[in-house]
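Translate structure to sequence.
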């Protein structure tokens, strides 16, 4: 797909992983918090569209920066696991 519109956490994750243009819909049903946290973590808040306030701006995402952020977090996670196993 060239553009993704999703209300699902996993749809959001896969959109980021596969470097797609996307919007995540905020449904206000309480399940949005994981999507919101994920987008905040990678400074992608502008991909969240609130259906009660459907104004949004299309922006290009620099996935090179996002991939580096993911690599850094993965390295921290590996370090934590190795330390936990060695204790």
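Result:
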């Amino acid at each position: 797909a060239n553009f993704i519109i999703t209300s699902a956490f996993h749809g959001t994750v896969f959109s980021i992983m596969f470097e797609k243009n996307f919007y995540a819909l905020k449904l206000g049903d309480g399940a949005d918090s994981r999507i919101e946290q994920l987008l905040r973590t990678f400074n992608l808040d502008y991909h969240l569209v609130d259906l009660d306030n459907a104004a949004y701006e299309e922006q290009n995402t620099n996935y090179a920066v996002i991939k580096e952020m993911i690599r850094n977090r993965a390295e921290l996670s590996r370090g934590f696991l190795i330390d936990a196993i060695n204790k």
